[in-house]
Amino acid sequence: MTDSIIEKVRFHTLSNGGAALGRLADGRVVFVKGIIPEELALIRYFKSENRFVTGELIDILEPSNRRIDPLCPLFGMCSGCQLQFLDYPEQLAEKKKILSDQLARIGKIANPENLLQPIIPSPKVFNYRRNIRFFVGEDGSLCLPTLDEREWLSIKSCPICSENINQLIPILSFDPETGIAEAEIREGDQEELQLILRGDTEKPENEVEVDIPISIVYSSPANSYVIAGDSTIEQTFAGTTVAASDDAIFYPNPDIMNQLCEELSVWIPSNDVYNVLNLNCRTGFWSKWFASRCRKVMAQDEVESIAEDFVLNLDAFDNVDLYLGKPEMIIPGLKDKVKIVVCETESSGLSKETITEIDRCKADTIFYIGHDPAMIARDLARFLPCGFSIKSIIPFDTEPNTAKVSALCVLMK
User: How many angstroms separate the Cα of 335 from the Cα of each of 277, 321, 330, 345?
Assistant: First the structure.
């Protein structure tokens, strides 16, 4: 392989995303997937003047005594899981270290370990996942990206997915002429399944039939088309039921939300005479959860297509208003005083403008739920100059065996 270098490297920690971090002989930082901290590995990387280098694993020369045999035969090839070579308690410990490192390095938060609470484990380590999105390969099979994301792997089962989803995976295959590029499987409360097909044409080029009772929705950039069954599917967690359509967020591990909401309940007022601003409300789970606990919920989202789901889920509540637009445009126009802001962020986190407007609305409590340690650290750092202090950071594991790290952060003035 031209312009490539093979080198032995000792790795010391896991980075955000699950790649191990080590240093090359020339002192530069190298990131390689598939390695446990403290292991000595033979790696390959390409010649580069970059300060940070991405390499690939050739062989583990000195394996860690923490390394275990992964359950999935595709582990190390598939990009879906990154930590299956560790026992679950070890996974949780590494995820907490990743979050702590990001808080200190990116957020410049001193002694983050004093703020971090014990990580909330998932009730299940395998068969927990209630949704998965596949690419459709050239042969029509369901595929996931390889570890280096350069190719696709045909998937017949996935040990982190529910048993019902695993029964469906091997019997799905699509004629390439249908124009279907992606297929997502979701499982609802009653173990009902929904198949969401995605492509660029308005409708599939050919008929799509599945000989089992299942809802099928075709989603294109222009619209959604129900082929069979229902257009939405329901999830219930923490006693709150929400319906989600094809483009709406669908939680992969709803069971963990019960304990997360118990942790959040400790921080809400004992009376119900307060108003909540729910940013990035999506299908309305947090709005619905708070609506029966407070005087009023003001919900915001930028995506107009979510309004239908939100209205369906919050129709029974008279104390909920929905505003469509950017937060920095919506917040200044609110007429009601805000006490609590709750926001479950996307991968991009919150903008500086949004945080400025949150400060101006005089809220004294923020519940920030994030799923990317780097964005969590960055946003927390942006809140501190506004006079907020971090009271607690509660990590929770939504996706065991993967490198995903989530946290509920409580900030107060």
Answer: 12, 12, 11, 24
The sheet carrying 29-32 orders its strands as 52-54, 29-32, 20-23, 4-14, 40-46, 56-62
pTM of structure: 0.94
Same CATH fold, 131-234 and 4-67? Answer: yes
Pinpoint the alpha helices (H) of 216-284. Answer: 257-265
- 3-class secondary-structure state, position 306: helix
**How many angstroms separate the CA atoms of 188 and 229, rounded?**
13
Architecture label for domain 4-67: Beta Barrel (2.40)
pLDDT tens-place string over residues 201-240: 887 766 666 677 899 999 988 889 899 999 999 999 999 9
Give Cα separations from 165 to 30, 182, 183, 185, 199 (angstroms).
37, 16, 12, 7, 21
Indicate the domain borders of the chain. Answer: 4-67, 104-122+254-412, 131-234
CATH of domain 104-122+254-412: 3.40.50.150
Pairing state between β 193-199 and 180-187: antiparallel
Query: Where does 19-87 have alpha helices with state H?
Result: none
Task: Give the span between the Cα atoms of 5 and 87, in whole angstroms.
Answer: 32
Model confidence over 29-60: pLDDT tens digits? 999 999 999 999 999 999 888 899 999 999 99
Rounded Cα gap, residues 137 and 143, in angstroms: 6
- Structural contact between residues 113 and 146, judged by C-beta atoms closer than 8 angstroms: no
Of 158, 150, 93, 96, nearest to 127 by C-alpha is 158
Strand partners, 335: none
Task: Copy the structure tokens of residue 257.
Answer: 């939300």
CATH number of 131-234: 2.40.50.1070
